[in-house]
Structures are given as structure tokens and as C-alpha cells.
Amino acid sequence: MTRSHILFLNVSGIAVSLVLWEIAGRIVGPSLLAAPSVVIGTFLDLLFQGDMLRELFGSLRQMLVGFGLACIIGMPLGALMGRIRLVDALFHPWVSMVVVTSVAALAPLFILIFGTGFEFRVAIVFVASFGYIVLTAFHGARGIDPKIVDVARSFAVGPFESYRQVILPALFPYLITGARLGLIHAIRAMVMAEMFVLVGYGGLIFQSGQELSTAPLISYLVSLMAVSILANSVLGWTGRRLAPWYDSKMSR
Amino acid sequence: MNAKLELRNLSKSFPRGKADPIHVVGDFSLHIKNLEFLAVLGPSGCGKSTLLRLIDGLLPADHGHILMDGRDITNVTGGEGRGMVFQSFDLFPWRSTLKNVEFGLEAQGVARAEREDIARHYINLVGLSGFEASYPHELSGGMQQRVGFARALAIKPEVLLMDEPFGALDVQTRDILQNELLDIWEKEQKTVLFVTHSIEEAIYLADRIAVISPRPAKVDHMIEVPFERPRHEAIKSDPKFLEMRQEIWQILKSGVQV
Ligand SMILES: Nc1ncnc2c1ncn2[C@@H]1O[C@H](COP(=O)(O)OP(=O)(O)O)[C@@H](O)[C@H]1O
Ligand SMILES: [Mg+2]
To answer: Which residues pair with B65 in a beta bridge?
Structure first.
């Protein structure tokens, strides 16, 4: 299949779903499922009225703090775990626990510890993305070809310099992939956490569930999806631009 | 004794869990003369790569010594006048040709402008002018190995260690690169320790051939190659060349049966 074939099928799939949605929406009515023709009007209203985007970007800013912390701590930790057995033995059980635990289950505990403000949201987002970032860096570091490390040793490059010159560049595509996985989970966790404490974008979504029409709710979901997909693509594009040699290894 | 590089009773075993360790290199001694081209010839799996890794200090030796101009460099990792060319090229995929060749110079702390001049000189020497900005994935296997040569030569090693550098290349490319290696060796005045499993390659390139018997690897025969230099493809069909090839094959065969 060529690119244009794939694009055609993508677009057709979306068009068919929209038509089915429209039919279903007209049958059950807007209080259960607003049809796309109704949603589009509400969406544009919300967009120009300004609250939707302001809340969304406000939430995303807080999310970025938790996600940034997860990257700053998680990437070097994962890389060290992949290269040094002792570090791995110390941290792996904790990382595994964090990855398998549902963040929603942690939310009540975190509310007790951190309250319902900024710290709570940052902590939830951190925990949601941290494990993915660490484990991707870990597997990347484990998989580095020992021959390439030997080349550096053969040129009498010391361990610290070898880390900077060989391990980190070899790891780069994995760090990008980990960041993309982590970002998606961070955004999900952000919305979930905000629904618990009824603030920010998650709070907006939760409250719109009480309204008579589902059109605002669907509009909020569409904006959220659009922003997530955009953020994910920007990271992927950045990775491919900075590391063209790894294009084949990068997940799309 | 004017050995450039001397290997004295080198030994290396690898543990194998509960089984007895495999003794890969055993009591290996060898003198490599200054500016000589010495081939180490042995079948696959006989421990040639292990031997080179010991010499380059990438693996610690169990016993024995490595002396460079009489100076003990046993278990010193890399550097110390040694430059290594690897079988699978092992270039850094995130570095351009120029940056790959500069790698060893960066490690030595050579200033940027000087580094670049030296790198360009060797890129030119291996015939890769115009490809300075290319990345390894944009180069053919033969070109990648030329970068591998240039990277090793750039640090001006006294002894060039080469681990089957043409083993991963097609026959035509290999023949071309063999000739270029001889040219470079004559221009650059280097001592070369060249590991190969190809009898023909060893005879064509080397002054002397150390034929290795396996398990553990040690020098079984030392053979002088009588051909004049500079050498040309024509000697490969010389009756003396064919006779030598036959003779060495007999030695290797008896080793393989052990
Ligand atoms: N790190 C290692 N651990 C265990 N065994 C090894 C290791 N390196 C090499 N060997 C063994 O040593 C033998 C010789 O290997 P090698 O030096 O690569 O041979 P060659 O280069 O002549 O083909 C092989 O049997 C191989 O399995
Ligand atoms: Mg080998």
C-alpha cells in the first residue's frame, strides 16, 4: 500500500464513523449522544468563548511540571539501571510496582498526603509517567551493543566520557520513545486527577457530565484528544529531526 | 631484542558456569618487529579476536605480559600506541564520517581545528574525500571500513591491530581494500598485526604469518613470506604462491583435526 492508499483508508474510516455517529445521535437525542452536527456548533462556541482552551492549557502547564520531573529523574535512572547491576537491583522492584499500580487507586492516598492542590496533581502525573520513562530508558541501555562501547574503550575513553559520548547518543531514540509514552500517560492521569478534586480541565469535563446535552462534554474530549495527538507528534518529529540515523528504530 | 610489540605467555580462559572454563588463549608468545606486517592466521573460533582484545586491553589477561617497545602495557585499556580496526566496522551511527574519524582525537583532547585537519587528511588518504558529512548508514560496507581505518590511523598509532577487517565485505571490495591497505601501510610506516582466517589474504599482505593452532590458541608455525614489495594481484597466481597456500592449508587442517 502506498501512502495515499493508507491516507484514503484513514479518511474513509473516520468519515464512516462520523456518519454512523450522526445517525445514532439523531435516534437517541443529544442528552445521551450529541450528533456531530450539533457538537460542531457547541465546539466552536466553547472555542471562541475561551474557557475551554484556558482551562486546558492551565492544566497542561501543571501536567508539564510532573512530566518534566519524571523525565529529569527517570531518564538518567533508567539509563543507570540498564548499565549498572547494583542500581538495577536497588530500584527495579519500585519501578515495577509503580508501573503496575493504577494511578486512580493512588489518588485518594495522594489527596491525604498532598491535599487537593498543585502538589497533588504534579505527584499523580509524575507517578503515571515515571515508570514508562524509566523502563524504556532501561531497556534501551541494556540493549546497547557492547562492541560500540569497546570502540570507545579502545580509544582510551574513560567511563564518564564514554557515558556522554556513547551511551547517551545510543540511548537517544529510546529516551524519545519513553517521553512519548510517558506524556500520553501523564495527560490521562492529569484529567483523572482533576476529576477527583474538580479543578482544571478534568473538573470541567466532570461538571459538563451533569448538563442536559452531551455536546459540551464531547467538545472537551475532542480538544483533549487533539492536543494529545499534537504533543505526541511534535515529540516524534523532534526525535526524527535530531536523530535521522535512527529513523527506522523510532516508533511512529 | 628489537621487538616493537612483544607478547609473553599470554593466557585467557572464560568461565562456563558449572562446566570447566574454556581455555581460549594459552601461553601465547610472539614478537612483532618494528614496521613489520604480521598476519595471525587461524580458523574461525580459534581465539583470534580474543587475542587482539587482550592486546588492546579490552579484556584482562589471566597471565602473561604485553610489552610495547619494552614498556609493560599489560591490561592497560586502549591507547598506548595501539589503534584498532574492527571486523564489523563499529562506527558510531550518530556521527558523520568526519566526526567518527575525530573520535580518538577528541578523547586525546586535541583542539578542534587541529583535529579537523588531521581527520580530513586521513579521510583523504582512505579515498573518502567528499563524504565527510555522510553518516554511516549512508555509506557502503567498504566505505564504512575505510572510515574505520581512518579513525584508527588518525590517532597515529605505532601498532595497528586489525581484526579480520575485510571479513564482512564482498570479494571485490575486499581485494580493492587489500591493495589500499598495502599502499597506506607503505606510506604511513606502521607496524601491523593483522588477524585473518583467509590463507590467501595472509600471504598476499604479510611479511610473516603466525599460524595458530586452536584450543588454546598458540603459535604453531611461523612462516616468512618471500614475495617482493610492492606486491600486485599477479602474485596470487604465481606457482610459489599456490604452493605456499597448499602448505599452510595442510598445517591448518592438522590443527583443525586436533
Ligand atoms: N566473552 C566470552 N565469554 C565466553 N567465551 C568467549 C568469550 N569470547 C570468546 N569466547 C569463546 O572463545 C572462543 C574464541 O573466540 P574468538 O576469539 O572470537 O575466535 P575467532 O576470532 O578466532 O573467531 C570461542 O569458542 C568463543 O565462544
Ligand atoms: Mg573473530
So the answer is: B8
- Residue B127 has phi, psi (to 5 degrees) of 75, 30
3 state SS of A49: helix
Q: Against a cut of 0.90, is the pTM above it?
A: no
| B40: β partners | B195, B210
Q: Going by C-beta distance under 8 Å and a sequence separation of 6 or more, which residues neighbour residue A89?
A: none
Cell numbers at residue B172, please?
571485490
- ipTM for this model: 0.90
Residue A153 to residue B78: CA distance in whole angstroms = 6
> Is the C-alpha dihedral spanning A217, A220, A224, A225 positive or negative?
positive
Report residue B226 CA to chain centroid gap. Answer: 21
DSSP A166: I
The model's pLDDT over A46-102, given as tens digits with 9 standing for 90+, comes to 889 888 889 999 999 999 999 999 999 999 999 999 989 999 999 999 999 988 888
Interchain proximity A153–B77, CB inside 8 Å:
yes
Atom of ligand 1 nearest to the CA of B50: 17
Question: Reduced to 3 states, what is the DSSP secondary structure of residue B193?
Answer: strand
Fold of A45-250: MetI-like fold (1.10.3720)
Domain residue limits, chain B: 1-81+192-258
The pairing of strands B159-163 and B63-68 is unpaired
Alpha-carbon distance of B136 to A89, in angstroms, equals 36
Interface of A with B in 104-163 (CB under 8 A): 145, 147-148, 150-157, 161
Q: Do the Cβ atoms of A147 and B88 come within 8 Å? A: yes
Query: Taking chain B, what is the end-to-end CA distance rounded to the nearest angstrom?
Result: 33
Residue located nearest, by CA, to atom 2 of ligand 1? B14
Domain ranges of chain A: 45-250
**Cα(A152)–Cα(B42) distance, rounded to whole angstroms?**
27
CATH 3.40.50.300 fits B1-81+192-258, yes or no: yes
Q: List pLDDT tens digits, range A16-54.
A: 999 999 999 999 888 888 888 888 998 999 889 888 889
Q: How far apart are CA A11 and CA A14, in angstroms?
A: 5
* Matching residue, cell 602495557: B73
